[in-house]
Design goal:
Number of helices: 3
Oligomer: single chain
Strand content: 25-35%
Largest sheet: 5 strands, antiparallel
Shape: rod-shaped
CATH class of the domain at 32-111: Alpha Beta
Radius of gyration: 26 Å
Length: 122
């Protein structure tokens, strides 16, 4: 009889212990999904009105979208869906007048951190 109660106590304790394990212990692993151009805030800060298409392409890379109906607009889109955490979306539209940048539209670009890397301590 006592042995039966001990078995029940052990089973209940195990059930409570395992169900209290919150987090990702029993979840399926999912990889981070990155789509589009990696948009770095430092490079976006370097974009300026007056640059030509070659300078923009050198700095930002080939645009993800060159619209056939708007050939003077280049769109750089970045989308990150992490295994866990918040989805990250960034969008930069570079609008040209001829071959020269006339306007830059930024969306969801984090600010550039002005922190200098710490120098090695001797």
């Amino acid at each position: 009889m006592i042995r039966k109660h001990i078995v029940y106590i052990v089973i209940v304790t195990l059930m409570l212990t395992l169900t209290s394990c919150s987090g990702r212990l029993f979840t399926v692993y999912k990889i981070d999904v990155q789509q589009g151009n990696k948009i770095e805030p430092e490079k976006v800060e370097q974009l300026s009105v007056g640059m030509n298409k070659e300078q923009v392409k050198y700095l930002m890379g080939t645009p993800l979208i060159i619209d056939a109906f708007h050939p003077d607009r280049w769109d750089y889109v970045y989308h990150l869906i992490p295994d866990h955490g918040d989805t990250e979306r960034r969008h930069v539209a570079v609008i040209f007048d001829g071959d020269i940048v006339s306007e830059i539209k930024k969306s969801d670009i984090p600010p550039v951190s002005n922190q200098e890397p710490e120098e090695a301590q001797e």
